[in-house]
Amino acid sequence: MQDNTDLDEIWFVVSPQNPFKKQKSLLHEFDRLKMVELAIADHFYFRASDVEFHMPRPSYTIDTLTVLADKYPQHQFKLIIGGDNLTHFCKWKNYEQILEYFGLYVYPRPGSHPEFSHPNVKFVEAPLMDISATFIRESIKNGHSVKYLLPQPVEDYIRDKKLFV
Question: Which CATH class is domain 2-130?
Answer without folding.
Answer: alpha beta
